[in-house]
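Reopening this one. Same input as before:
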Amino acid sequence: DPIYDEDGKVINKYRTTKRTGYGDTNLTVAGTSKFSVAAWVRSQNEVKNDANKQASYEDLSMMMNGSEIYASVWTGSKWSTVRLTENTSPDISPAVASSDRYAVVTWRNVQSSNTENPVDFNVCDNVYARVYDKVKDTWSESICLYNGETGKVGALEAAILEDGTAMAAYVVKTGDDDSISTDSEVMYSTINPDGTLGNCIRITNNDQADRNVQVTSLKWNGEERFILGWYNEKQREKIEEKAEDSKSEDAVLDMEKDIRLQAVDKTGLPCDDFIESIKQAGAEKISTNFRFSKPAGNGTINDLSIVWVETESKEQKDDSKQQEQCFVPNTAYTLSAVRFYQDGNRILVSQPVEMAKMDSGDTIDSFEIYSKEDNVHAVIQSTHYEIDKNDPSTYTVDELEHVTTSEDGKTEQTERVNVYTPVGVTNLLSAVGKFKLCAVEATKPSIDTNDVRMGFTLPVPFTVKNAGIRKINKITVNLAGKEEEFAVSLLPGESTVVNASYDVPEGKIEDISYSIVAESQGNISMEEECSGEIKLNIPEIKLESVHITEEYRKTRTIEMNISSQGTVPLVHSGKKVVIGLYESNPDICTLSGEKADVEPLKTITIQDDKVFALMDAGAYSYQCTLEEPEINEMMQNQFSKEDLRLSSYEIPSAGMLLYARVWVENADGSQLEEEDKSDNMGTTTIHSLIDKYGSNESMSSRIEQKEKEVDCVVTIKNNSFVNSTHGNVVTVLKNQKGKIISKVKQCFDNSKDDNGIIRVAEEDKKEVVVSFTQEDLLEGYCLEDAASGVATYGEVDENASTAKLTELKVSGQHINMESFYKDKVKPVISNQKKVVEENGQKVTKKVKINKLTYTMNQELNQSKLNTFIFAVPENPKNQVKVRVNDGTLLEGTGAQVGNVLLNGNFSTVSATVYGNVYKEMEVLKQVPLVDANGKLVVDLITKRPKVKKQKVYYYIDELGNVLDEDGNFVDLTADDILDYKEIYAQNVSEYVVKLYKCSSGVVVEENKQVKKEDKKINQIFLKAETDKNACKLTWTKQVKADGYLVYGRNYKPGKKSNKFKLLKTIKSGKTLTYTQKKLAEKQWYEYKVDAYKIVKGKKEIIGSSYKVFTYNISKKSKYANPVKVEVKKSSLAVKKGTAVQIKAKAVLPKGKKKKLVVSELRYISSNCDIASVTKTGKVKGKKKGSCYIYVIAQNGMWKKVKVTVK
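Same output, byte for byte:
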C-alpha cells in the first residue's frame, strides 16, 4: 500500500491503484531467491478516530472483523499479490512454508461474542490453509484443518515437503482457565499437494505444559519427513524431610524443562525412530523461545539445529531501606544452539554451543536464524537498559510512598522514595554459533592424594566428552610428556572414561600437565582446547591442637601442634605453611553467603625443609606470643565499655576466644586448595588469671634443705592484668605430720629498703626466699624435721590505722574474706586506759576504742579438723590475737600462724586486730534535732529549729591538720563548734568464723547454752527476680521467725566488692518478700536474707539463705537471668557408699545468653547424714533413708530432687 499523511492523502507519487486496506501486520516469509511466499494480515475497515485517542473495544472489534489474509509469491523476478480470504470474521496469525514448486499459507479464523474483550475467541477458533502451485500458478481453495472443537488455538506454524505435502502444526488449549498452563496440547494437520486435507492428529495428551510448537522438514534415511518440536514443562516432585511438628510430608514442586521432538512421514503418520527430546544434550536452562534452523532447500538430519534463549535471574541488592530505588532488568540472556547428528539408525544431539551471551542490562527481545555449512547465524533484536544518573535521557523518575515496618511489626513508617526506571535503547545485533566437526572436552581427574606415592604408578582417569558433531574414533592423552592412545567410538554428546597412567618419580612430587586430542573421520581436535594441569603436589596440613602454654607479664604464649597428612610430603614441595591467629572465626560467612573478610591478629609463614620434615613426621610444635597491645585490642573489640568497666578492666570472666588457622600456599602466595580443610582450624580461650586461679594472687612454696638452714622458696604470681601488687610474705615450716615446727617469719622488716615489701607487676611472678635457722624453730624440733613450707601473701599498708586483716585462713576450711559481713554498720565505741607514747615517753592515757565485728557462718569440713591458722593484718605493725573456742591460741605483732585442733561438731575461730594508737580531734558540735522521719524539730515558741549537742570525731594527720572522712579540712572556729580537744583512739576489728556441722541441709551449733529446739540454723531458700530496674526478693517461711533481715550490695566480678548493707529489717514473720528499686542497668547485685527470733530483747539468727546474684539488664540485652531450673530426673535412687550424678540445667529466656559470676548451679542436701552432694552435683549415699537435694541457679531459682539411699 502507499504511504499516507495525517489526513489520509497519498504521499507516494508512484501510487496508481486504489486503497485496499488500512494497515498490514504479522508479515511472515519463507523461501529462496528463486521462489518465495509471503503472507500478512490486512485490515479492511477504516477506524475514524483522533490520533491521540485510545482505541475503544468497538474500534478493536471493527478492526478485527475487517482482518483478512493476503499473500504474495516471488517467482524470481516479481511479486504477485492475492487476497486469500474475504469474509466478515477475523483472519489472523498466518504461517507460510515453501518448496521448489509449492507454497502453503495457513491461518486462524476466529470469532468473539465478548464485547469487552474482542480477542476472547469464544465463538470459534479454526485453522485454514491454501496451497499454491508454481507450475500451474494457481491457489487451491481454502480448507479447514481444525474446527475448534478441542479448544482455542495458540501457536501456529507451517512446513512443506518437496512433493507439495504440507503441514500445519498448532497448540490447542483444552480448558477455559487462562491461569492453568497444563491443559495445552500439540496437534497437526497435513495438506495434500492438491490442497485437500490429509490427516489431523493430536500428538500430546498429558497434564504437562506443551507450548510454542515449531515444525520443519528434512531428508532422513532417504525420505522426506516433517520434524515437530515444542516446549515441554512438567513437574518434578521432591519430598522434603518431615518437620518435627508436621503430620504430613510437604511436596516441593520443581519444573523440568525440555524441547520434545516428533518426526512425521509424508502420509501424516508419526515415526517412532526419532529422538524424543534434546534433554540428553545437557541443556539445562531451556525456555519457550526456540527455533529450528537448517540450510535452505532439502537439508538432511546433519544440517538441522535448534536455537533457544536461556535466561537466568541474578540477585539484586535490597534497596528497600534506601531513599532511591533503581529498576533495571536483572535477567541474564544467552542464545544457545545444538546440532543433530545421525549415526546409522541413531539420532543424536551435540553439546550446546553458546552463540551470544548478553551483557548485564541487555535483553534478547526476538531473533531470527539461518544455517550455513557448520555454523548457525542469528540476527538479534536487543534492548539495552542502563541508568546513568548524569544523563537524564537514560531514565524516568517517579516519587512514590514507601512503607517500612519495624522489626517487632508494631509500627509502620511512610517515606517518599525516588523510583528510577531505565529508558531502553533498541539495537540490532548479529551472532554466529560454530559447531566443531571434531572437539573434545574432559573433566579434570580428581586424584586422591593418598594414592600419590613416590616411585609408584598413579592411575589418572579422564572423563572425556564428544563436544563436536562427528563421531570420535581415537583419543590421545599426553600426560607429562608421555602419550597414550585409546580407541573409542564416541558419538556427539556422549562421554566415556579413558584411564591414563603416570609414573610418580622418586624424591619429589610435582604437578603435571596434560592435553587430550581427538580424531574424527580425518578431523583432529585442537590440543589447546583440552589441556590443563593436574595438582599432585598438594600436601594436607592439620592443626592437631592449640593451647596456651604460658601466661606471663600480660602476654600469652600459644603453642600449636602441626602435622602433614597423607602421602604427599611438605619436604621439597616448594610450598609455604602459613599460620594465622584471629579473634573471630575466619571461615564465617555473611548473610549473602560470601566469606567474611576477617583480618588476622598476626600471621607466621614457614618455608624451611627442616621444619617441614618435622611436620611430615608429626612432631612439630610452633609457639608464638600474643603481646599486651594485641590482647588489649581483643578486649576492646570483643567487649563493650560497660563490660570492661564492670570487670574493672580485667579480662571479663567470659574469656576471649582465639582462633588459629593453618594453610598451605604456593610459591606465588596463592592458597592451596586442600581436599579436607575441616582439620585446619582450632581454638583456645584467653582467660583472666583471676578467674582461672580464683584469687588476685596465687602462691606456691617449696623447701630446700641446706647445711645450716632451710630455705622456703615462695613464688608469688600476680593474677591481675591491670594492677600491680605489693605485700608481705608470711611463712612457717611444717613436719611430715603437718605440724608447724617454726616461728612465723615474714618479709616485712623496717630495717630493709622499702621495708622488705614484695612488689609484683601485672601478671608477673616473683620468687622470695625465706631462710630458717635452728633458732627459728620451735622447741624440740630440728632442721631435718622440716618437710614443707606454708606461706601466705597479703597486700600491706604499714601506715594503715584501720586494723584490718588481709588474710584469715584455716587450712582445709572454706573461708573467704569477702564473705564476712559487719554485725553493725557503725563501730562500737568504748574507752580503755592504755600505755601510749607521748613526747618520747610512755604514759597511761584514756583511749577511745572503735571496734567493728565481722561475722561468717560456714559448714565445717570434718576431714580437716587437725589443721593450722593464718591471720595476716594489713599493717604488719598491728597486734593480732587469735582465739579458738574461747581459748587464746596465738598473740603477737604482725602475722600469726599456729596449729589448731577443731571440734568435730562446732568451732568458733576469731582473730582480733588492734590498730596503732593515733590521735583524733573530739569536737562538741551543735547539730539540728530531727524526728524519727528525718524532719527538723522546731521550737514552738521561737519558731527556730531545735539543736542538740553531739560529739564528732575527726582524724589528725601527721602535720596536725584536722580532716573529715572525705579528707577535707575542718574549721574549728565555726559557729556550730562549742568545744574540741585532742584524744587518743585505736581501731579494733574482730573477725569471727562459726564452723558448723552439716545436718538437715543446715548447720547445727553445739552450744550447751542454746535450747535443744533452737539448735538449728535453718536453710532459707531465696530467689531474686529483676524487672524494670527493680529486684524482687522472695524466700521460704521460717516457722519460729519474728522477722527477717535483708542484706544487699553491688557485686563487682573480679574486684573487691562493697560490704553487705542492711537494706530492710522486716518485723513480721509472715512477710516473705522485699523489692529493691532504682537499680543501675548492667550492674550485678548480690543478696542474702537472715531470719531472726527475739530472745531476751535481742535478735537471734535462726535461719540464713545462700547468696543470690542477679544482673539488672534491659529486655533488649542479649543476656538474661535464669527463669527456672530443669532436672532430667526428679527422683534418684543410690546405694550406700555409691554415687550418682544429678543432670540439671538453668533455663534462660529463648534467644538469650547466660552471664555467670558463680557456678551455674549450686547444690544443697537436706540431710547430709543420708546423702551428701558435691559442688558439681554428684550425690553420695551415706545411710539408708530419703532426703532432698536442692539444685539452685545463681539468682536462686531452684528445683528439688528426691534421693533415696538403699
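So the earlier flakiness isn't reproducible anymore. For the record, The longest strand covers residues 977-999.
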